[in-house]
């Protein structure tokens, strides 16, 4: 393949990755809502460990396991931040509606619990 053809393939895969990551984020948001409504914690390290094991099992190269795991760690960090930002927004809206501004919190930026 020429460089131009290779870049077209990369662009197409990037497009698909954006679609897949957006779908993943929708499911993570839904999981976050479910966990809040059932009083479960947002951060679930055992589940995350299972995901990293799944990723390594599927890995056929050429990416080293450790690098692929780092990519997924970053993805899940972002998912958690998304879940917590939604939660914080909901709490702010509830606090405003109830007239309790003191209960308002700034959205988080991605730290673990
Ligand atoms: O599976 C969950 O419980 C989720 O909330 C989803 C998810 C993920 O993005 O895969 C996000 C945060 C948790 O720590 C574990 C996994």
UniProtKB/TrEMBL annotation:
It comes from Acidicapsa dinghuensis. This is chorismate mutase. Residues 1-87 form the Chorismate mutase domain. The keyword Aminoacyl-tRNA synthetase does not apply. Residues 89-113 are annotated as: Disordered. It holds the Pfam family CM_2. Residues 93-106 have a biased composition (Low complexity). SUPFAM superfamilies: Chorismate mutase II (SSF48600). Its EC number is 5.4.99.5. SMART domains: CM_2 (SM00830). PANTHER family: CHORISMATE MUTASE (PTHR38041). PROSITE patterns: CHORISMATE_MUT_2 (PS51168). InterPro entries: Chorismate_II_sf, Chorismate_mutase-related, CM_dom_sf, CM_II_prokaryot. Keywords: Isomerase.
């Amino acid at each position: 393949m020429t460089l131009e053809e290779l870049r077209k393939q990369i662009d197409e895969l990037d497009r698909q990755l954006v679609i897949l990551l957006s779908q993943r984020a929708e499911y993570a948001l839904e999981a976050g809502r479910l966990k809040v409504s059932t009083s479960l914690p947002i951060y679930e390290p055992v589940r995350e460990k299972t995901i990293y094991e799944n990723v390594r099992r599927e890995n056929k190269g050429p990416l080293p396991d450790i690098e692929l795991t780092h990519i997924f760690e970053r993805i899940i960090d972002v998912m958690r931040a998304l879940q917590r930002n939604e939660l914080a927004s909901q709490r702010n809206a509830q606090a405003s509606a109830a007239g309790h501004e003191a209960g308002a919190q700034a959205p988080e930026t991605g730290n673990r619990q």
